[in-house]
Every structure is written in C-alpha cells, then in structure tokens.
Description:
Layout: E1 5-18, H1 26-40, E2 44-50, H2 53-63, E3 69-73, E4 82-86, E5 90-97, H3 111-114, E6 117-125, E7 128-136, H4 149-166, E8 172-178, H5 186-195, E9 198-199, H6 200-203, E10 206-208, E11 238-244, E12 248-257, E13 275-283, H7 297-348, H8 357-407
Parallel strand pairs: 1-2, 7-8, 10-12
Antiparallel strand pairs: 1-13, 2-4, 3-4, 5-6, 6-7, 8-11, 9-11, 12-13
Amino acid sequence: MEKASLLQLRIFDLNCWGIRYISKLQQERVELIGDVLNQEGFDLVLLQEVWSEKDYWELKKKLCTCYPSSYYFKSGVIGSGVCVFSKHQILDTFQHQYSVNGYPYMFQHGDWFGGKSVGLVVLKIKGIVFNIYVTHLHAEYSREKDYYLSHRVVQAWELAQFIQHTCKGADVVLLGGDLNMHPEDVVVRLLQGWVGLQDSFITAEKVEGCEDGCTLVPANCFTNKKELQCFPQGIRIDYILYKGLSQYEIRCNSHETTTGKAPNKDIPYSDHEAVMVTLSVAKKQSDEELNHPAVAPTVVDILNEARMEVRVGLHSAERQRYSCGRMAVLALLLLLIQGAMGLTSILGGNIQQPFPKFSFSLLSLLAVLVLLISAVLYLFHTIEVRMLQGTEEEMRLGLQTLQDKLSSG
C-alpha cells in the first residue's frame, strides 16, 4: 500500500550565468528568471552564478511576495554567486568556503576569485526539518586535460563531510547545484556513496525535458558548442540530490529540465538548463529500518579512486611549489650579484660600471618582481600542498573506518 505523503516540495535549480557586462543578455535573463519564478510558485529556488549582488537584490525585490525568505552567500573576491529563495521561513544559515579552488593567476577562468563554497539553509515545514545545501564546484574547462580535477575532488569531499557533520538534527537532506561533473564521474559517485544521497533524475517516477536529463545542450544558443563536440546530446552537470533521515523517506515524483528557449521567448534562461523536481515526504512505518544503511563495498573503491586523484594533484602541487621556490632563489642570487657589482663600482672608485645605469636598474627591478611573485606563488602552492595532504589523510582514515566496518560484518 502506498504511503500517504505528509507534504510535497517543488524545487527549482539553475546556474544563471550572471556575469555583468560579459554574459549575453544578462539583464534580460534576470528579468525572465524572476518572471518564471513568480509564475510557477516553487517552494524552493537554488541559484548559482548570481555574481552581482545587485542582481540578487533586484530578484529579492521582485520575488518578495512569492518567496518572502531568501539568503545570499558571500565569499571570495567577487562572491560565491550562490543564493536561495524560499516560500518557507529560513531558520538558520551556514557556509563553508572550499580550501582549494583553482589558481589566482588563471585570470581567464576566474574560479579562484569567486570563492566557491557550499551554503546551508535550514527550513521547518509542517514540523519536518530540512537541511538544504546549495553549491557550485570548480569548472572543468577541458575533459582531456582537467588540471582542476583534484581540486574538484577535494571540494566534493569537503562538501560530503560538511553535509555529514551538519545534518545530525535534520529529517531531510537536499543538495542542489552545479557540480561540473558527469553522472559517472568520481565526484558524483562520492557524494552518492559516502553521504548516501539519491539522484533525482535516476529515482524520478516521471522524467521530462532534455534527453538523459542533460543541462548543457546544443539546442541552447548560449552554450559553447566546442565543449559538446564529444557529447552531441549534451551533458548533465546540474543536480538535485536528496535523502531522508530519522523516520522520514523521500520519493521523487518528477524531474524536469528546460529545453533551450524559455516558453514563449526567443532566449533561454541561461547557458545551463534549469532543473525542476517535485519531492514527496512520507513517514516510515514503525517496523521499517530507521537510518541504518549497510556499508557498500563499492564505497571503498570510490574513496580509493578519489584518494588517487588527490594524490595526483598533490604531486602536481609539489612540483609547482618546487619550481616557484627555485625561481625565487635564482632571483635572489641575481639581486645579490647585482648588489655586489654595484658595491664594487662604488668602492672601486675608478672601476667603470659594466652596464649602463638604466639597464642595471631595470634588471634589478625585474629581479625584485620575479622574487616577489615567486615567493607569493611558493606560499600559495605550499598552502595547496597542505590542504591536499590533509584531505588525503582524511580519506585514508575514512577508508580505514569503512574497511573495519566491512570486516566486522
């Protein structure tokens, strides 16, 4: 017999591609997103890449009647771009900024300046406590040469740990956002295996929209077609994941994505397709097992794979740190040589300066600049090495715990 649901929750998730003065038709699309949210009346709206806080306040003003409660998560140089709008009152919020997030000298990518993070909002609906997590992980940029994979794995591990350690008092856990990974990739499998989250696309009773639930599709006029050359149907990188805790269980009634252009419009909402999910919350029967999942052996393999990616990133970070340190030492030696030559010229009296003063000064300035930049990058990569080492050690302990549970039956 089908259980009577206590409530239904309609969720909207979208990467808005809201970079002012760079993203195409950005202002028009913000207006369009506000209009559809007011029309549809979702219970919960999870947005990413709302990079301008001014856009958030414009949306807040427009949506205040339908979504009286909202929150914008601030971090990094330009902000996390992550915000939440809710029909129900937000009781509490918390944020964790990821320890690694790309490189500050990769200006063309800009992820480091965004301060990628995970935001938590707590809702209580009909006596049921919901922990809602929204995040945006580091972008991939290149499938063949993914220099940021280790950073994204670390972010996924921190996200998984953040959820594990903050959901103790919740009845329902829900995660939405742009994970920048394909469904079969280690990041998604880590969240599913380690935290026990279910993918709304996989479990949905009814699926509509793009084939395979893709959220980057060729039909979208804003999508970079070069990124999809190997994926003619598109790729799925935006997710809504969930699980029930304590005495509640969750069922996904429907999973829907937009398909290119917005209804009755000539443009899409974003370069990503929106994800819309309806979840039902029901109470477990008293004789059902309450939140005691068995440890799956596959989780060990997933964690080993994730740990291996972190190790690869660690070796790369150590090489970069060594290169920066060597460059700093060479620049310091050059400065010392120049200083000795200048001192010899001053004390030597009649000894002629071997270089013109302008060239000598320019070379000194260049050596100082190289020394400063190399020293700063050496410190940055030292921090990166420490963070990767810490994550690798956490994963090792996690693996040991999992293996002990499996061996004890």
